[in-house]
Amino acid sequence: AQTVTQSQPEMSVQEAETVTLSCTYDTSESDYYLFWYKQPPSRQMILVIRQEAYKQQNATENRFSVNFQKAAKSFSLKISDSQLGDAAMYFCATMDSNYQLIWGAGTKLIIKP
Amino acid sequence: EAEVAQSPRYKITEKSQAVAFWCDPISGHATLYWYRQILGQGPELLVQFQDESVVDDSQLPKDRFSAERLKGVDSTLKIQPAELGDSAMYLCASSCGQGNEKLFFGSGTQLSVL
Question: For position B98, what pLDDT does the model report?
Answer without folding.
Answer: 63
